[in-house]
Amino acid sequence: MHTETALSPLESAARKNLAATLTTPVAAEQLDASLNMRDAWGLTSLNKILFITSLCNEMDISLGLLTEEDLANMHSLADVCQILNKHSTK
């Protein structure tokens, strides 16, 4: 039996922004949130910053709230959502 889990607004936006940032075409709904973004899709450090910046802008999350440790721990889409969820009001 297949059951779909509704995505939070943050995860939906994260998937959309990551898919738009990747140089390899991947549909947002096909992204596996548990995979390391660098290893799975070749996300560079610059593109990671562009992705996080665009996501934070869309979700009204101040980049100033993020620490270097937060950024260093954002390996997977799930990590990004977990860390940003602490700062999200949407």
Structural write-up:
InterPro entries: ACP-like_sf. This is Acyl carrier protein. It comes from Erwinia psidii. There is one protein chain. The protein is an all-alpha fold and 90 residues long. It has one domain: Non-ribosomal Peptide Synthetase Peptidyl Carrier Protein, Chain A (Orthogonal Bundle), CATH 1.10.1200. It is 51% helix and 0% strand. It contains five helices and no strands. Helix 1 runs antiparallel to helix 3. The longest helix has 14 residues. The mean pLDDT is 92.
Question: What labels describe this entry?
Answer:
90 residues; mainly alpha; Non-ribosomal Peptide Synthetase Peptidyl Carrier Protein, Chain A; 5 helices; 0% strand; Acyl carrier protein
What's a concise summary of this model?
The chain is mostly helical and 90 residues long. The protein contains 5 helices and no strands. It starts with 8 loop residues before the first helix and ends in a 5-residue tail after the last helix.
Regions with pLDDT < 50 over 5+ consecutive residues? none
What is the number of strand segments?
0
Counted by DSSP, the helix tally is: 5
Could you state the order of secondary-structure elements as H and E? HHHHH
Largest sheet: none
**Fraction in beta strands:** under 5%
The CATH class: Mainly Alpha
- CATH fold descriptor: Non-ribosomal Peptide Synthetase Peptidyl Carrier Protein, Chain A
Q: Give the count of structural domains.
A: 1
Q: CATH architecture, please?
A: Orthogonal Bundle
Report the radius of gyration as a whole number of Å: 13 Å
Overall morphology: globular
Mean of all residue-level pLDDT scores:
92
Summarize the amount of helix as a percent range. Answer: 40-55%
Structural class: mainly alpha
Distance N terminus to C terminus?
Answer: 31 Å
InterPro entries: ACP-like_sf
Protein name: Acyl carrier protein
